[in-house]
Amino acid sequence: MNGILIEKYQPPRDRERIEHMLLNRKDLLTNFYKDEASNKDNILVASVNTVLAGFLSFNGFGRKPQATLYVSKEHDAMNIGSILVTEYEKMLIHNEQVEHTLFINCSDDSIKLLENQGYRLYFSSYIMERTGELFPQADIRVRNYDDEDYLAWDRICELAFYHMRQRVGMYPSYFYTPVEWEREQFAKNKDNMFVMTVDDTIVAIGKIDGNKISIVAVSIEHQSRGYGRPFVQFLVNEIVGRGEDKAVLEVVKGNFAKNLYESLGFKETAFYHNYIKYFRPETRLSAPPDNY
Q1: Which residues on adjacent β-strands are paired with residue 268?
Q2: How far apart are the first and last CA of the chain?
């Protein structure tokens, strides 16, 4: 294949080369580090005459693997991205857990090759950052997540994001019901998870991952009551208080929460597209159960 070699990732040989390749794509480097930690044995690297040309990493086998693809500018014309995607799909097709896969943070360079291989745009999103001083302390009640909060957390998260996906036109719609393995994961990560309460009722949930607000949601019954602003301010203060110099979040294009984040000083730093492809029929619920 014109000197193109596709191999499994070997950290001593490839790690520094990938870090150098992604000097100007810190977002992809962050994704790569996460994939390396959870699934390093299945990362694919491409080389041309011993020169690293690109890689494809993903977060492991499951219902919906999330993948990251990068090919250097010098090798764009060599069809390397398509070859990596084809090899990746060979792994997915033979794994019965996999229903679909999502390529995240896609640049304009990779969109055409994904579309040519049957992928479609699922959603686009903004990466936003805020630097600066702490917010004044608000008069709200926030505490760490506790195991007894799991069902309330799940309901708030699933309903809020289900309705957001409906509003912005993310298809297909889906909905998860509570599962024990997720509850066990939450129990191990409760120091990074927070709930806001009003009269002992949980009205908002939030999760941080390093300098990123990875989840924030207000219950559908309590939206548009002014709870989101002080809660996001709390999460930003928590991140900065842990020594981070900025707070980062991602918001789907069309989500009206972007206006709130902008009013709190968050600035757009990147805009990405996320592409999806199905291999098996969807088995998730397409909508919340009645009276959920």
Answers
A1: 128
A2: 54
* Residues paired with residue 123 on neighbouring β-strands, in sequence order: 274
Residue 134, phi then psi, degrees to nearest 5: -65, 150
Instruction: Give the amino acid at 39.
Output: N
- Judging by beta carbons within 10 Å of its beta carbon (0-12, 13-18, 19+), is residue 50 exposed, middle or buried? exposed
Class of the domain covering 4-118:
alpha beta
pLDDT digit string, tens, across residues 108-159 = 778 999 999 999 999 999 999 999 999 999 999 999 999 999 999 999 999 9
Give pTM, 2 decimals.
0.87
Question: In the chain, which residues fall in CATH 3.40.630.30?
Answer: 4-118, 141-270
> How many Å apart are CA 68 and CA 101, to the nearest integer?
11
Question: What is the CATH number that goes with domain 141-270?
Answer: 3.40.630.30
Which residue stretches of the chain are H helix? 11-21, 26-39, 80-93, 108-116, 150-168, 180-188, 228-241, 257-263
Q: Please state, in angstroms and rounded to a whole number, the distance separating the CA atoms of residues 136 and 39.
A: 41
